[in-house]
């Protein structure tokens, strides 16, 4: 994994040098092919806190309103002996930041350079197919109206690459339980999926025999219903036995 991360970091540097930032293009770019994780959610939903929890570093700007207003590529490294950690921005190659307070200030300064001090927002990269999406929703808001879930469903309708994250659990209304609401939702989704897939197949010989007998019983029932006219298609079965089979036997 360490080698993979190092390789991705090198490819990111090469893309930056070549001017490939994954911008909108008629052709796929190398940058767009790299694996990534995107954090999406409404304003002040806790996106920055989730990112800091993942990397175990406090380095993102804080403030009122929209603070994070442009995409930046920040790589976190360890020295070869693992004794020291440092950060590098792709817009400042070969400059190492060991003070994460300075990292926060550089993020603020680069944001102001790109978008100005008037709280403008720059364009953002697409949530491409190889991007894992962390959908951030505050626990004190209704999940049915979550901006994060709405955004993620637009690009990942089946939810195969989306992870839901609840933040601000401490701000929930008294008497509510986020765990219970998530468990109930998960149970319903799993029961629906199990109903679609069917019952599990037993591993022991007796269970397998029962499963085979059950399949035969259902086949017999469906076959009878076709012949009795309960299901359509019975006339085709009769045609085989009344016409096609006798004709084939005469030819043989």
UniProtKB/TrEMBL annotation:
The keyword Phosphoprotein does not apply. Gene3D superfamilies: P-loop containing nucleotide triphosphate hydrolases. It comes from the Eukaryota. Residues 31-123 form the Dynamin-type G domain. Coiled coil: none annotated. SMART domains: DYNc. Keywords: GTP-binding, Nucleotide-binding. Belongs to the TRAFAC class dynamin-like GTPase superfamily. Dynamin/Fzo/YdjA family. This is Dynamin-type G domain-containing protein. The lineage of its organism: Eukaryota, Viridiplantae, Streptophyta, Embryophyta, Tracheophyta.
């Amino acid at each position: 994994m360490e080698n993979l991360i190092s390789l991705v970091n090198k490819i990111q540097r090469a893309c930056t040098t070549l001017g490939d930032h994954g911008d909108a293009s008629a052709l796929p770019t190398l940058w767009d092919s790299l694996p990534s994780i995107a954090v999406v959610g409404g304003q002040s939903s806790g996106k920055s806190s989730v990112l800091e929890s993942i990397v175990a570093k406090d380095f993102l700007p804080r403030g009122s309103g929209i603070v994070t207003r442009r995409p930046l590529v920040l790589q976190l490294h360890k020295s070869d002996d693992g004794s020291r950690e440092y950060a590098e921005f792709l817009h400042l190659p070969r400059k190492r930041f060991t003070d994460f307070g300075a990292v926060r200030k550089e993020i603020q300064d680069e944001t102001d350079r790109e978008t100005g001090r008037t709280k403008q927002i720059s364009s953002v990269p697409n949530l491409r197919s190889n991007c894992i999406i962390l959908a951030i929703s505050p626990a004190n808001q209704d999940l049915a109206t979550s901006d994060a879930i709405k955004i993620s469903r637009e690009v990942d309708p089946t939810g195969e690459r989306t992870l839901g994250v609840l933040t601000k659990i401490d701000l929930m209304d008294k008497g509510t339980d986020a765990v219970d609401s998530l468990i109930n939702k998960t149970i319903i989704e799993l029961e629906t999926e199990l109903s679609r897939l069917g019952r599990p197949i037993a591993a022991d010989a007796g269970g397998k025999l029962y499963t085979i007998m059950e399949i035969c019983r259902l086949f017999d029932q469906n076959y009878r219903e076709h012949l009795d006219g309960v299901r359509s298609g019975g006339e085709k079965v009769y045609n085989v036995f009344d016409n096609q089979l006798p004709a084939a036997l005469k030819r043989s």
